[in-house]
Amino acid sequence: MPDDTLRIDRSAKTLRTLALERMREAIMDFHFQPGERLVERPLCDQLGVSRSVVREVLRQLEAEGLVQMIPGHGPAVARPDLGRTDEIYELRALLEGIAARACALSATSEQLATLERALADLFEAWASGTPPAVMRATTKFYEALFEAADKRVAWEIVSGLNVRINQLRSMTIVSTNRREAAIAEMNEIMDAIRGRKPDEAEARRGAMSNLPGRSLARRCGRRCDAAYAPPAMTARSQAVMASKSIGFVVSTSKSGPRRSGSARLASSISSGI
Predict the structure, then answer these.
(1) Residues whose CB falls within 8 Å of the CB of residue 203, separated by 6 or more in sequence, listed in order
(2) Are 159 and 140 in contact, with CB atoms under 8 Å apart?
(3) CA-to-CA distance for 92 and 84, rounded, in angstroms?
(4) What is the pLDDT of residue 120?
(5) 75 vs 214: CA distance, rounded Å
(6) pTM score above 0.70
(7) Pairing mode, strands 67-70 and 74-77
(8) How far apart are CA 177 and CA 107, in angstroms?
(9) How confident is the model over 188-226, as pLDDT tens digits?
């Protein structure tokens, strides 16, 4: 009889991944507010998954800094850690500057073309004024930058840092001051990369760490911190939370499968799509 102790349950892994993505998006889109409690049973109903999957998702989100454990209350949406905001922005600027320098030195013409397309997509996303679209396009651009620079480990670090400040980024990323300054700076970075000027490319990315977004992020973070304290979960608040649908579950009847709830943030998780 074969030993199945190391066998991978692909369906369970896919379900967990989809649930994690939906919850991460829901938190970043402020479907759940900073400080709001995350109760397992309503989340099971909303996501259409088991309690074990919800627990795994909450643990992962806690590791990412999006969820925090409140003594006596359980998991809640994390409030921005303003004490570390500056440090995170500084580390990002340092690593992204190194990537910009390496890209200017060694990127191939194909890699530069990919970077140009990613930048065009980013400008289009900024024009749309939609925070999730801007954040996805920003991630795509910097991923292309680090790929062209052959700095994969550095990209993994930057991705982890971004997760810790994504709430603040989603509040500030489409603000007029930040958009105009960032577009100008990114054009200068690309000009330096095209011109094969590594010192200039690195210096321009370092200058972006002083963009208005940092101070705006801190102000938004303070408002979040003041506005949301971890609430006690009353019967009424449980009902309200249960009414929030971050996906839909599939139920069956004589008339066949039917969707219940809202698909505003997600397609079906329980179907494994």
Answers:
(1) 97
(2) no
(3) 12
(4) 96
(5) 28
(6) no
(7) antiparallel
(8) 31
(9) 999 999 999 999 999 987 666 555 445 545 555 554 545
